[in-house]
Amino acid sequence: MWWPVLLTVVVLLALILARINAQAAAAVSYLDGIRRSAVELVTAASTFSALSDDLSALDRVEFETATDSVTAALDTASASVLEAPQRSSLIGAASLFRLAVSTWTGGVRTFQEGMLRSADLDGAGEEQIYAGIQQVAAGDELYQGVLAELDRADVPDPITPLPELVFHSPNYSPVALARLFAAAAAADNSLLALRADLAVGQVTSQPAWVTDPDGDLVVEPVETIRVDVVVANLGNTSAPIQNLFLDLSTEEGEESRTLAVPALAPGAQTTVSFFELPVTSGQTYQLSVALQLTEPDGNADNDGIALSFFVNEPVE
Description:
Elements: H1 3-40, H2 42-49, H3 60-80, H4 91-120, H5 126-150, H6 174-186, E1 198-206, E2 210-211, E3 217-219, E4 224-233, E5 242-250, E6 253-261, E7 269-278, E8 284-292, E9 304-311
């Protein structure tokens, strides 16, 4: 009887075909995983390459947030392709993709360290910046190798093509870009440097002065007033204890006082109050408050406020 042999052959062919289909499906699924990882890196690549668009506006917090988000996306992409593909024709593309992600990650971290070092140590991180940019550019080249591998005839087509990924800004060579970044980081007005920026934000009084119809500040008839001064740390590092100087003067005399401003964390503020400042009805006073910083913070424009006010006479 020949039909048992035929049945066996049919079963074997079905098993072989099912295995081939399963391998093909696994290959397409693996490629789709790479594609999803690449798609998630599009924003990261755009974020990193855009850092060179306005170097003078690079704020330390924003810079660290941006570069940290890029490395976090790269770490996620790396974790998603740790498993080796079952199909040998995909080994090349998978290996190159893992290497590209690893190279990008190392480059971005080295670049970040170099930028902060340049900002904090007066340009000392330029070599690190250059090394990081070189790594990032090398990662771009490796990714082009991934795309070339996927064009091979023995590699199944992914469900959707992989996106283009370019981390290194195409507008500059690595050397030129490193010099631009290093100069911006080490500039006197660099927003990347660790700097406290104490600012006199607001000055008020008790009793409260009000604005008269002529636009002048006036206070009700009193013998003393309290002046409250809001001092804020607008910088990106803690500010040590400093002094706040107040001068209250009129044609008949002058009153000067100095009070301590406590240490302030970045973004924190405090109110310093000068109590029982003597005033006389019918007098115009010149008031100035100014921070006496032990070291300049690079932004003298917000270190003080000056104004004048008039103390009304009693109404009889």
